[in-house]
Amino acid sequence: xxxxxLLLESLVAEGGQTQEDLVAINTALDKVGIEIRNELVVxxxxxxxxxxxxxxxxHxxxxxxHxxAAMMQKMDEIQQxxxxxxxxxxxxxxxxxxxxELNSNxxxxxxxxxxxxxxxxxx
Length: 123
Known about the structure:
Layout: H1 2-14, H2 19-92, H3 104-109, E1 112-116, E2 119-122
Antiparallel strand pairs: 1-2
């Protein structure tokens, strides 16, 4: 691009009035215009990539926030399940009272069942 600027300055300094000079000036201007457009394309591409990176980072942050919210929800569900399990454990620790019904006829026959709070139990 600097080469084109030098060419334009030299042509202006010479005060080119011939057809060849005008063609050279127009060609140089075209080349400078093309180089400027190419540089603008590169700059716009870099800006677009920068914006995409920023948007990607924002999208990643939103995704991370969504993942964190999902993890927190899962942790709450797990905590609720743990609380239910703790209640189940507490209920299972309560002493179980069972009553064995015996028929008086079974006791007479004298079949040994086991030892209980009132002594030996026969069936």
